[in-house]
C-alpha cells in the first residue's frame, strides 16, 4: 500500500504538483485552503506533543520485563536505534530471533533459548549467558568480551571472527562449533566440550583448556601463546598444525615449545 504522504495533488494557486499533505506550496509559497500560519503552528505543536507522549510511553514500557521482551521480538522490524543494554531477557523463548547488530552489553540472557538465533555482529560484552541455549546460532563477528558463559550451549554455532577475550566458558558445550579466527585470549575454557570444533587460525594467548574434551579439534594455523592444555585429552597430532609462539602446557603438565 503506497504511503499517503507520497501522493500528489495540484496546487490551486499555481497548478504545480505538491504532496497531498502539504500545508504550503513549495512552488508559490501560498497556504493551502483551510490553513493559516497560526493553524499550521497549532498542528505542529499537537504533533510534537503526541510524539513526546509516545516516546515517554515507550521509555516506561522498556523498564518492564514484558516490554523488553516485546521490543526484542520486534527488533527485526524496528529502526534498530534503541539499545538492549542491561535488559532482562533471562529464561525467555527466543528461538530463531533476529538480533543481528543489537547492543546487548550487560544483558541478562541466563537460561534463555536462543537456538538458531541470528546474533551476527551483536555486542554481548559483559552479558550473562549462563546456561543459555545458542545451539546452531549465528554469532559471526560478534563481540562477547568479558561475558559470563558457564555451561552455555554452543553446539554447531558459528562464531567465526568473533571476539571472546577473558570470557568465562567453563563447562560449555561447544562440540562441532565453528571458531575460525576467534580471539579467545585469557578465556576460561576449563572442562569445556570442544570435540570436532574448528579453531583454525584462532588466537589462544593464555587460554585455559584445563580438563577440556578436545577430540579431533582443528587447530590448524592457531596461535598458541602460553596456552594451557593440562588434564585435557588433546593429542600431539591435534596441536602440531598450530603455530606455537611461546611454550604451552601439555596434558601431563609438562611445558612444550615447538622445535625451531
In short:
By secondary structure, the protein is of the alpha/beta class. It has 3 helices and 7 strands.
Keywords:
15% helix, two-stranded antiparallel sheet, Pectate Lyase C-like, alpha/beta, 260 residues, 7 strands
Quickly give the CATH architecture.
3 Solenoid
The order of strands across the largest sheet is 3-4-5
User: What is the number of domains?
Assistant: 1
Quaternary state of this entry equals single chain
What's the level 1 CATH class?
Mainly Beta
> What coarse outline follows from CA principal-axis ratios?
elongated
CATH superfamily: E3 ubiquitin-protein ligase SopA
Instruction: Determine the fraction of residues in helical runs and give it as a percent range.
Output: 10-25%
Mean pLDDT: 89
